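Sharing a chain and its predicted structure for anyone who wants a worked example. Both blocks are below, sequence first, tokens second.
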Amino acid sequence: MADAFDAPALLFAVPEHKTKLPGGTTESQSVILALVRHGRGLATYTIEGKVEETFGETVADWSRKPSAGKVERLAYLCMMLGLPTCPPAVRYQLLHRTVFALIEADRFDAPLAGMIVHSFSPGLSWFEDFAAFVRLLGGGEIEPGQVRVINTPSGRPLALGWACGDQSFLQA
């Protein structure tokens, strides 16, 4: 994964960092927010840790009881990712965790951003939802352990990747 922007140097990482999103009062929270230096400059990464849990509700389920805040938030998320609309089958968590990285890149004046799923699932649970999300954003096909870099409407490159965690860490 280190080759998305070139060799990284971790500057700092913050666990359970929260970022405000337009529409509503609920903040987005990543497992880790990392600020990284690459040869091409600073990058912010949101790291989403998973074992067997899903990426939450689909957009269709999340939108079932629309409010003005939800409509505003979904429009913002889609706009940030260059999507005219958000397909109903997309997992809502993938949208807001990815935009979270872009928002934090703005805050740190980092020209690069990324969202990495760090999965410890032996069976790659929910990888297909992630792969569909990468395709939706124009990243093409992706396999576990790979990164795809897409261009965002802001012009900021965005890395999307799936890292496979060491199964020995699941042992108590």
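Comments welcome. The chain has a mean pLDDT of 91.
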